[in-house]
Amino acid sequence: MNNTIIGTGINRKDGQAKVTGTATYAAEHQIPNLIHGYLVTASIANGKIKSINTQAAEKAPGVITVFTHKNAPKIFKPTNNFVNSKIYEARLPLADDTIHYAGQIIGLVVADTFEQARDAAHLVQVEYTTQKPILDPKQATFKNAPSMFGEEMKFEKGDFADSMAGAAVKITATYKTATELHAPMEPHAIIAHWQNPDSLTVYEATQWVAGSQNTYSELFGLTPERVRIVTPFLGGGFGSKAFPWPHGILCAAAARKLQRPLKVVLSRRQMTANSGHRSATEQTVRLAANTDGSLQGIEHTAKSYTSPVDVFTEPCTNITAVMYAAPNLRLQQELAVMNIGTPTFMRAPGENPGLYALESAMDELAWELGIDPIELRLKNETKENTRRGLPFSAKHFAECLRVGAEQFGWQERPKKPRSLTRDGKLIGWGMASCTFPGLRGAASVKIRLLADGTAHVLTSGNDMGTGAYTIVASTAAAGLGLPVEKVRVELGDSLFPNGSMAGGSQMTATLIPAVMVACEEVLKTAQAKTAEEAFASLRQSQRAAFEATGSSAPSQEGSKWAFQSWGAHFCEISLDEEIGRLQVTRWVSVMNIGKVMNAKTAASQIRGAVIMGIGQALMEECHFDPNIGYPVVYDLATYHYPTHADIPRIQVSFVGEPDLNFNPAGVRGVGEIGITGVAPAIANAIYHATGKRIRELPITPDKLI
User: Radius of gyration of the chain from Cα atoms?
Assistant: First the structure.
């Protein structure tokens, strides 16, 4: 493999298409005879539909029909088990007259144009029988959270109570995180096109093409081969576009009933209720330590919230067993049902809020002991996953801490709060660790060597904007001995070999080994050592192409090793305490992700994650109207997130070695680890600046004055 290509900062293969507007997103596909749908949503959070009058809407200009629970198109219940199929809400759209949360879909108006459908939707008259919704966590009933992916949400090792009783130093603190909304640049949208009653093409932003193909096939009683999913580009997903939402399912069902291609695009307001969010959490961390800082016990309990129509736990405590060593450990997760839309995966689900609590508590312990926060973490570093009892592979966490401290100048940090000022403002330095599991799936890739001297790579695995086009192209170029410019990549079509899911930071680790195998296979097929030899053979034989498919999947390595990526964040903040104005002024991140396939896109992933984490720490929150239950934020103006003026230069470095125990390329994921640890680094810097410990996100100006 040509190592002059792998690891260097190659420009994005999809960059020109995106900046020139030729990249086609879900709502932009041009389909003849296309009609448009607009959702009708509930204005109450709990109750039943007493009556729904659609007559005025049906008579409006351009309206074709209006679907409600009274004439809902036929949909089959899928297996919904993550293996055969998966939908975000177990309750199918328009299943009955019951309302479970404000914004729930109760109808779909279909018209010749988007504007006609939208206007007619406002003419639908609904009367409700209402019940008081549960919107206040204090009124919710918490129960032990169910297992997630086969792992129990409750774990205990040793005797934590005994360790706490005998500890020289103890920390107990409760931390809260706010509800965060998914707000990708590309709104959720779908075009469903039935070529005939048994053949469906779906143009939809999905992070899992093969999974959507299987799910839509089950929803409509088809074989997977009769369903085609097309997703060449996604304008962001972060977990909210992995599976079909009710609007997509309803759109496909309505299109089949009408035998017309149908488009449904969610408004930003509708997205606040109908495309998921990160659940608010309340977490309590208790640490028991000796005077030298060695941990004797860790307890981490967490509460989160789900909807009445599905179960989703924000798994905050899973991270605790991999971070620090302690002979006594107790983890427990609880879940309550509230009348809100269904929460779901959001960048580093569980790990992100979980590390906010754990890394904040570690900082509190360091101050209590008078020990440097880095020294405390190094002293308690664990060499194994406590729950699984497996050693970590290619772990360079300590190196992340040491390199980050050196780059940031941590050794110059004043040891007292409120001791550093600049231009009349308080200055604070903070740090936190970060981590995310190394995940990998099975994937297949087809490579074609063409007579024009180019290589064509095809797989259904897709690119959320994270750089998959570029990584796949550079890997193929290296394996075939070609310039990157001679490699064309096509992604995101279920007609291509199954490329697995763009989620859980696993796409690169999953796809790249398959590309490497496909390169070997196509050269074998051509009986050539390089692509240039194959091209010469093609010209002589007058054949159109050589092609081969390569596949790769995890084997037994997961029974021998625990795979995890590691890192550390260091930040500086300035605070004008009189008005509560906080600015993040400096940032250093050091990551250990195994092999770095593309220095430019990898660093970009970390920077984007840090920016998202700064938003979580300082701005992002969604409140629900206590009367009607609807999110009080309704667009990108009312939902606060960072702009360029809020972000400093973010310095990113990578350390470590390829993790060849994990896969043949030695690469782990980079998409999600960057957001973990960001919020606690900022909170810890605020304590250093002010001496005030703030344990609730976001840390808004009112909490800083």
Answer: 26
